[in-house]
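Design job #97: recover the sequence.
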């Protein structure tokens, strides 16, 4: 039984390390996304790439390399040490499949088309500014605005977007409105998010961030069970898991706080870009309703000429 408990403790510790790497990767991507929350005037009709995709592609590449290395090591052991060629072939096939899937995912990420955004729509409208366009073209721009609104108008929290997150969403909207007056600089956006708000978001909206703390607590429970079973365990085995669980929870709160700050900052940027796009659409709509300059005078002269000819 003690051997089983020892294996469980090692497995939980390894899972905690993997969870810690995931937390650090997510924290890094949120920090980069927060620092890039700026209203950039696009000179081309190309939307920005989310740095979130780039950071997580790096992490995914590292995981693929580690899994492939372990798979090849296992296949070599099965083939040369244990003389089990069938199992070795299956492991190698799994490794090749993982490499192919990873390559396809990378290619799909590179060739993925950029979705329409407020920045792109504003750039397109700016190119038409000063020109007379038809009412149908204005209707197309309004349809594009509605399309972007369906994705960017409101703050969203992914699959676990539920009614319990309304206070968090209201707080982020208030922070975004403040950013509309004074753009966030440095860690101002992070300071604007309270720890209470981050805690509510973690427990209700994203409990996955608590997994490392759960694994650390599992190690502590495993040690307690080993002591009850008669094992002699030194005091660090009780103290270290508690400290690790607490630190993992604080890291989850910090991770959630930075992610919420990034959402609020980008929502402020989107709101400004949308306001600019709406103003440009209204200007184009007014210009499309105007008559041609001097058209009334030319029509009056043409009618007068016709009357003179008839007389």
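Job complete. Output follows.
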């Amino acid at each position: 039984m003690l051997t089983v408990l020892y294996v469980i403790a090692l497995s939980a510790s390894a899972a905690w390390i993997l969870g810690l790497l995931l937390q650090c990767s997510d924290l890094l991507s949120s920090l980069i996304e927060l620092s890039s929350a700026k209203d950039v005037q696009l000179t081309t009709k190309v939307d920005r790439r989310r740095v979130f995709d780039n950071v997580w592609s790096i992490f995914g590449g590292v995981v693929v390399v580690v899994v492939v290395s372990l798979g090849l090591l296992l296949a070599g052991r099965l083939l040369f040490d244990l003389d089990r060629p069938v199992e070795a072939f299956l492991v190698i096939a799994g490794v090749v499949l993982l490499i192919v899937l990873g390559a396809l995912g990378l290619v799909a990420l590179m060739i993925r088309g950029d979705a329409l955004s407020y920045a792109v729509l504003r750039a397109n409208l700016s190119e038409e500014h000063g020109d007379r366009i038809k009412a149908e073209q204005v209707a197309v721009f309004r349809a594009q605005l509605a399309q972007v609104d369906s994705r960017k108008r409101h703050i969203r929290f992914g699959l676990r977007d539920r009614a319990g997150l309304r206070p968090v969403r209201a707080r982020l909207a208030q922070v975004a409105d403040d950013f509309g007056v004074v753009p966030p600089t440095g860690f101002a956006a992070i300071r604007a998010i309270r720890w209470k708000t981050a805690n509510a978001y973690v427990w209700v909206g994203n409990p996955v961030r608590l997994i490392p703390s759960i694994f650390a607590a599992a190690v502590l429970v495993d040690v307690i069970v080993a002591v009850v079973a008669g094992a002699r365990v030194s005091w660090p085995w009780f103290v270290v898991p508690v400290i690790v669980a607490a630190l993992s929870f604080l890291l989850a709160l910090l991770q959630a706080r930075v992610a919420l700050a990034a959402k609020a900052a980008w929502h402020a940027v989107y709101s400004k870009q949308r306001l600019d796009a709406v103003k440009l659409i209204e200007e184009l709509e007014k210009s499309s309703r105007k008559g041609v300059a001097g058209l009334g005078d030319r029509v009056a002269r043409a009618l007068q000429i016709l009357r003179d000819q008839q007389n």
